[in-house]
Sequence to fold (243 residues):
Amino acid sequence: MDYLFACILMGAGIAIDVVLATLARVRILGLNRPGLSWLWKITFTHILFPVVGYYTAIYLVHLGPWMTPVVGVLAAGLLGWHLTSLVRDILVDSRSDEPSNEAGSTTSWGLVLAVSWDALFSGPAKSAQAIGWTEAQILWSFPIAGLVVSVGGGLALAAAELLRRGLDPRRVALSPPVMRAQALALLLEVGIFAYFMLLALIRLTLGFEPAVLTSAVGACLIAAATGITLWRPIQSAVANRFL
Fold:
């Protein structure tokens, strides 16, 4: 059960961006050809990218024991960079007078890759999570996390389809309850990635236990601090991300 929960948690962390990106394109995406194209591309990258990141980290660790702390710093640094970029984008979006509107096709590989970088960065952090796992458990963890991403993306497409058919999507998306829900989802993403960042740093670099409990407490504090200081900018960013 702990193994399954760990896989689902990693999947949830990299799925939140997919869900938000899907809902932000509700005028185009749904249970249609563009939506299904978007879903399979996103699922593919969110399975492949963690594999690449994880086995790159494992290769580095096998170069010598001295590399383990380095991999911890590398994993924490990548996720820390992602979190910093996320917060920076929130602040930039909140100051924009116009809603963001990505150029090019909504289902292009360029946009898919832009939404998938967090999956690549999660790979090295997985080396801290997977300590004690068998090779089979490690291999299965990637499709399990990918399934979580696919389910989240599919549910977002279904919700987008309902909005497109029966309601004014912009009015619904900008309603206070929906904006709060999306803002909380962004904070959840911050918390999950902060957890894996701290887990990599504490377990691999510092060799400290209990790493899981310490990382969980630290992640909650980081998410809470982000929410307290940036709650209004986050809600403004949610509005500006909507097409």
